[in-house]
Amino acid sequence: MLDIQQLRNTLPEVAKRLATRGYALDVSGFELLDATRRRIQMHTEELQSKRNSLARQIGQMKAKGEDVTELMKEVGGLRFKLDTLESELKEIQEQIQAFMLSVPNLPHETVPVGATEVDNVELRKVGDPKVFGFPVQDHVSLGEGLSQLDFAVAAKLSGSRFVVLRGAIAKLHRALAQFMLDVHTTEHGYTEVYVPYLVNSASMQGTGQLPKFAEDLFHVAEDDLYLIPTAEVPVTNLMRDEIVPQDCLPLKFVAHTPCFRREAGAAGRDTRGMIRQHQFDKVELVQFAHPDRSYEALDELLSHAEAILRKLDLPYRVIALCTGDMGFSAAKTYDIEVWLPAQSTYREISSCSNFESFQSRRMQARMRNSRGKPELLHTLNGSALAVGRTLVALLENFQNEDGSISIPGALRPYMGGLEKIAPTSN
RNA sequence: GGAGAGGUGCCGGAGUGGUCGAACGGGCUUGACUCGAAAUCAAGUGUACGGUUAUCUGUACCGUGGGUUCGAAUCCCACCCUCUCCGCCA
Predict the structure, then answer these.
(1) Does the interface predicted TM-score (ipTM) exceed 0.90?
(2) pLDDT tens for each residue of A305-348
(3) Is A276 marked active-site?
(4) For this structure, is A317 an active site residue?
């Protein structure tokens, strides 16, 4: 949520910046709404003030045993008018709140301006795509060839966009998550947290999934709880309605969780394989930063995600998303894309964003600043990494001609020393 | 799931219809004392939204949402959460 003061005071500039991400701010609609609100609010508060002072007088006079029928009559006359005004005020404030919740974040000034992903800017490529001396297979045929990746049985259990892993590949999947958690906690200074996978609507609103993106979420109607689409939701909401001392910043958390997404708008996209599933695991980094230092924190967080790919010897590139391609809540986003040889392309494996105060304003996540006043802090997060897609990348990049998979050195300690996954591996 | 207790400011904790935005204590800030610190003393210290603007001022907020009343932290209703006991249970 944007700062409503900023909207009032610099409406044309805000509209212009939002236009760069393809969002048409309803300027006149907002102006009308806000002007109406102001008029009703002033009128309401004036009458409330009058009522309060009369009520106070009645109390004082009654205490002295004086007659109050005149005053009672006067205050009674206010009542109907006040009831009407108060409900009008409430309604318009709800409208303004709904409006504010629907406006996306302002792009940071360093974000490249553009309409779609073709305008994204590649910042760097790291590692060279390996040249294979044989026809490469994709992860589906590799995994099914090893009888360790099973989409058919998953469809029987749950439908499309699910997978069952078996044997060494299931273990490799687990190893990846353990490895990532260990690197972030021991080398990058993150505190590991274990969090609920079901959250309430206030949490979803805090990070921006609600109210606009309900169709992307799995909702348990009976309990009005949502399955988390990313650990960002529960971990960021740890600080909802909290005020922390500024010297404890930055707060850095890492969590490994499953993520659940309905993929409602993705019909027909990435239907083959593990790229786009209803359920996948992710190791997520979340930082709460001082507002003056959140962009340093973003660079740092990005480097933490990259570190995993470097340690795994996976070729990747880093992309700065353009204004039109960024998510609703982000002020600036870097994507990391990993090389997938079977598709001869880079595919997203991480997304690292600074949300500035967009989420913290919704959540009222604050710090006490040097003047002793509460001030919104900045929130950041990034995948480090999406476990399922990392598994895909490993299978494809470390495949051998015989269909076996070599295991990168960094993961062998987590695989009981196993160097290669062959059809018989468990 | 059943029974009981409770949810108040940064924290602890008073407050059962009227000047309560809220006693008291702690914390924090500033000042005094001190070479400095501690201790002590004094003063200050909620959030949000308006109006006016270096000031001052109005309104709202005591788990959430309704209701009663001239007036609600205080009374009524519903819901949420926490704790204790019982039941159940990975």
Answers:
(1) no
(2) 999 999 999 999 999 999 999 999 999 999 999 999 999 999 99
(3) yes
(4) no
